[in-house]
Amino acid sequence: MNKSRLEAFSDGVLAIIITIMVLEIKVPHGNELSDLHPLIPIVLSYVLSFIYVGIYWNNHHHMMQTVKNINGAILWANLHLLFWLSLIPFATAWNGENHFSNATMMVYGFVLLMAGIAYFILQNIIIKLQGNDSLLKKAIGKDFKGKSSPIFYLIAIIFANFLPIISGIIYVLVALMWLVPDKRIEKIINHQ
Length: 192
Known about the structure:
Layout: H1 4-23, H2 40-65, H3 72-86, H4 88-97, H5 102-130, H6 135-140, H7 144-160, H8 164-179, H9 184-191
Helix pairs in contact: 1-2, 1-3, 1-4, 2-4, 2-8, 3-5, 4-5, 5-7, 5-8, 7-8
């Protein structure tokens, strides 16, 4: 099966996710800069979620560069990932509207955790199809970031019960960890 439809569909879903998130930022009633103050938590939540969606888009793009063929399992695993990513606008809006409360930070972390697990599943299904000498397997190596992110999300979810600010810091740190350009896949592809 050709992978171009999967990539085009995924890109479209991610574009819609970002559009939905930005539409949640309502224009304030008033024309003073102080009228923007109530939007600060909403905008901060949006910025972090935009970065997360961008990270997934970037990594998904790189991962798909290693794939020659796809099968039904990859299609379903990709849909599984897109399902969890499609919940980011809800978690983002709820989090921003409620000023990063305990419950909203917990749900936000749960969505990030499940998206991370879904990405891990997709990655492993691709490796299984491509074989142990696949480009993707060579590129990810021991995959410290991929394996440690769910642990950080779980810690953040626990902290959300009593110190949601710590959860927020952890979510930002994980995003920063992934924001640093990951050249593993590019190096493998360019080497081939």
